[in-house]
Amino acid sequence: MFQPLTREAMARRLAQDIPDGSYVNLGIGMPVLVAAHLPAGREIILHSENGILGMGPPPAEADINLDLINAGKQPVTLLAGGAYFHHADSFAMMRGGHLDICVMGGMQVAANGDLANWSLAKPGEAPAVGGAMDLAVGARSVYIMMEHTSKSGEPKIVERCTYPLTGAGVVDRIYTDLAVIEVTPDGLLVRDMIDGMTLTALQARTGAPLRAA
């Protein structure tokens, strides 16, 4: 029997894999939790697409500054030496390849690294994609943080995405509540699994072939 990771535990697990000295964008939703779990003594510079560099962990309630928020409109802190700046400058950083890692949520990830994470819209609807496409192609590495299956139990890691794509072949690694999976030219490679999980059980919850590292 196994116990899936909580979202906080997922964030803690992902944070352990961010190298010292990295410039990292944290996307809207689950990825913002990573800011509170960065390893002590490791210099990691956090970026938010609305125009922050040097973002810190979430503030205590007494320290909230409503003028200092992330892209998801949540209050954040600013570390010593941090800065905030124009939205256009932030997107120039994203598009110019100046970010080492982007951590984003996902609705589907395909075996070849295709990502769908911005729209569950019905035909005729047109939601905004925000900066997800810019980040997906601009960051040197893309880490996806998501539950392994949907609320209805459908696999979110699939052979081919059925939702509108955010980026083609952009995902490098997937962090779920069950496993850490690397996207390679030879397919999906399972790097880590939660206690009690087997490759057979993980495969049964995955819509694309898996290989053990």
TrEMBL record:
It comes from the Bacteria. One of its GO terms (molecular function) is 3-oxoadipate CoA-transferase activity. Keywords: Transferase. SMART domains: CoA_trans. Its EC number is 2.8.3.6. It is an enzyme of class 2 (transferase). Coiled coil: none annotated. NCBIfam families: pcaJ_scoB_fam. Belongs to the 3-oxoacid CoA-transferase subunit B family. This is 3-oxoadipate CoA-transferase subunit B. The gene is pcaJ_2.
